[in-house]
Design goal:
- This protein is mainly α and 230 residues long.
- It has a single domain, classed as Methane Monooxygenase Hydroxylase, Chain G, domain 1 (Up-down Bundle), CATH 1.20.58.
- 84% of the residues lie in helices and 0% in strands.
- The protein has 7 helices and no strands.
- It has helices at residues 3-35, 42-69, 74-108, 118-139, 142-172, 177-209, 218-229.
- The relative contact order is 0.13.
Amino acid sequence: MSKHLQRELEQLNRKLMSLFGDVERMINLAKDALCNQKMELVDIIIASDFQVDEREVEIEEDCLKILALHQCVAADLRRLTTVLKINSDLERIADLACNIASRARDVHAYPYFPIPDYLPEMVTKACLMVRMSLDSFVDSDIELAKDVIKLDASVDEYHLSVISELRDLMKQDSGIVEPALHCFTAARQVERIADLAENIAEDMIYYIDGEIVRHHHEKIDQISEFDKEN
């Protein structure tokens, strides 16, 4: 690899890590807005989305420029395709954080509405998945990426519990249907964030091992067994 290409790839990594940090901050703020009713955060989250959009475009242009100027093969080509996918997933996570913030404001309009007990745990777990996917990227840690994928099942379980809680609340009091539906939508956005964190983890496994595990999570265990034997 030429020094020029190496320098450009390192710069690209720094930009993506910075974007990771900003998106992680947005979903943590969205968590506070939704679960702790901190409405002063809603406008901050939504305003941050414009910067994320601009940086996503910038990173994509950098990737395309590197592909055009250098004859990347093997690991470098795999790295660039991984960065392109993660970049897109981060932009979508930022959009979902904005949607959660908007729904938090809608729910807040009904101060008597009780936030479902399992929702804070669900959001915390989804935020943890994004944090772990960032760490797996920074450290090229394939075991951590596998742990992210395994955590998605627990977020799905929390999601089902939140839906059940909301259903019971609406049965008990038909007057809270509207805030319950806003809350239901917010929970769905959190579940999508967990899915995207899982996508990032799958991309990291592809980058590190060259193994495509999307839709084939049984391969994760096979990779683990291979790692133990080698």
